Amino acid sequence: MLIKRNSNGIELPFASEITPRHVFESRRDFIRKLAAGSIAGGALLEMAAREAFAATSAQKLAAQPNPAYVVLDKQTSYKDATTYNNFYEFGTAKESPARYASAMKTRPWTVSIEGEIKKPMTLDIDSLLKLAPLEERVYRLRCVEGWSMVIPWIGYSLSELIKKVEPNSNAKYVEFVTLADKEAMHGLNRAVLDWPYVEGLRIDEANHPLTLLTLGMYGEVLPNQNGAPVRIVTPWKYGFKSAKSIVKIRFVKDQPRTAWNLAAPREYGFYSNVNPQVDHPRWSQASERRIGEDGLFTKKRPTLMFNGYSQVASLYTGMDLKKFF
Ligand code: MTE
Known about the structure:
- By secondary structure, the chain is of the alpha+beta class.
- It has helices at 21-35, 41-56, 78-83, 96-100, 125-130, 158-165, 203-207, 259-263; strands at 64-70, 110-115, 121-124, 135-142, 147-157, 173-178, 198-202, 212-217, 220-221, 231-233, 246-252, 287-290, 301-302.
- The chain has two domains: 1-58; 62-316, Oxidoreductase, molybdopterin-binding domain (Sulfite Oxidase, Chain A, domain 2), CATH 3.90.420.10.
- 20% of the residues lie in helices and 22% in strands.
- The strands form two sheets. Strands 1, 4, 5, 8, 9, 10, 12 and 13 form an eight-stranded mixed beta sheet that branches. A five-stranded mixed beta sheet has the order 3-2-11-6-7.
- Residues 85-89, 141, 143, 178, 197, 226-227, 239-240, 242-245 line the site of ligand MTE.
């Protein structure tokens, strides 16, 4: 990914990253009330307890494990999966999303489904949660930067939703548009990408049963930093194809102009299938480091073609994957 650093190679937080505005404002309000004597001791304790509860409680989400989609690798710890993230809308440092994504309001939330379909619709999160039975699937996620994780996601195949909206014959691609809320996402002030973050899939990729419309992980709803309340996970592609916090799904005729492809077309192709034989122009993609298991000095593990999901190979029959990287 393109990360701007200072001359020492260190990424410095920008002013608004130091404390998110909502935290800062509620703290300021709290201190003002405290100074004015309008908060008594008991109320103080209660407020502190409520704040701690809000910070730690996550809503449970029941799902049936689907053994057909469970990799047997050791699962990444919840802590690692929720504190080492890429979600540039909240800053480019790995720890930034965990620190700042709580500013994003995930309810009410709607996803507008539009374009080349017979039944355009706008669905709220409760409707999405009920659209198909929720499954737990343990997928490998391989980031283009050379690290990987193993995460128990909750959701169902995107094809369940596609079936409902009835694409017409012009629907060749699916575009995912994600939230761009300047109030909540300080990262939008930086022109790292052309916001909003947009990703896309060919319609047959979107319809592949592996493509997961994802609403939860580790038995709970998605944490904000992992793309609440709804995201896509395409485990045979580099992680950046798995767009977070989706607000619009568009069925289109032409290949979508996706955020990373627009930012650096020679580095990030539209397909971005995990492929150990096609190096990134600035680094090899032949091996990877599993977060939480492989230290910086451990020998890296080999990266597998399609991240090990060989069942997708037939989607690319006859295509030169060096050209369509
Ligand atoms: N989606 C949005 N909206 N913004 C982002 O910056 N980063 C991508 C992807 N989806 C990103 C995004 C990248 S580079 C990766 S590797 C994965 O999210 C990381 O997902 P995770 O944090 O849940 O592991």
